[in-house]
Amino acid sequence: MKPHIIETHGLSYSFGKRQVLHNLELRVPQGTIFGFLGPNGAGKSTTIRILLGLLPVPKGQVMVHGQDLKDHRIDVLRRTGTLIEMPTLYRHLSGYDNLEMNRRMVQAPKSRVEEVLQIVGLTQDAHRKTKEYSLGMSQRLGIALALLSDPELLILDEPTNGLDPSGIREVRELIIRLNNEHGKTIFLSSHLLSEIEKCATELAIIDRGRTLYQGSLQHLYQGAFTSNVLQLETSNNSIAYKLLADHQYELLPQEADALAVQVHDKEQVALLNRLLVDNGIGVYRLSMNTHNLEELFLNMTKGEATPSAVL
């Protein structure tokens, strides 16, 4: 089992009389891309500010890199890189000069500037003024700035915000590469659920300061499988319909050219297919109307989640 690079224990936080976080429990395994999701007002920004030491919390509630954040804030932050939405850049300076200024502040080796430029794919544009950079290039430079100290953990909040499809893909591929090739743990907060779905291996969904789900994407999908509908086309839909009904399958209203059957697991799909074939009925198409992350997220944050999807 992988150690946790971030842990929160009963994390609660209030602004005056308004409580924002309610006993929030997070466990971020080392070496993962961890998606952090929640609707507006769920407490995501407050949680991130706490993880970066910008808001005070009681001792013992937040552990990062195995250390209590309250007692070891400076050391924790040295080992953590961050990009919160848009990077702060000196637009009259080149990408290289922006990195060099920040390198001196974090006291990284001089060679690190060239290394991070290569990692984010900006070597050829290093000496262009950043006012000439596209938004996607600026975001990649922001990630390069976060990488200067060679941190084990990257906290990225909305890194694809405002990007066009090409820029979104560039940042997504960079995040995956940082994880796979450079061993970085990525804590990724984003409203683009399709992007989380494409790159995250673990995730947490919070709402109103409480954890609704935490675990792998695979487990989340498996927990929602009970509501899947199988669409199938056969050589004779009328005979297939009667055969399935006789064998107690849950048939839904029939469409013109397809049958719809409620299924509960993958084994049931295999048995259904074998039943039809063994009875001389050709199966032309089997397709599952599965939930995607957006549907599951909306169901959970509206209070419609299945018990298997909730902590």
TrEMBL record:
Pfam assignment, any one: ABC_tran
Keyword annotations of the record: ATP-binding, Nucleotide-binding, Transport
Domain ABC transporter, residue spans: 6-233
GO molecular function, one term: ATP binding
ATP-binding among keywords: yes
Family: Belongs to the ABC transporter superfamily.
Protein known as: ABC transporter domain-containing protein
Species per Swiss-Prot/TrEMBL record: Pontibacter korlensis
Lineage start: Bacteria, Pseudomonadati, Bacteroidota, Cytophagia, Cytophagales
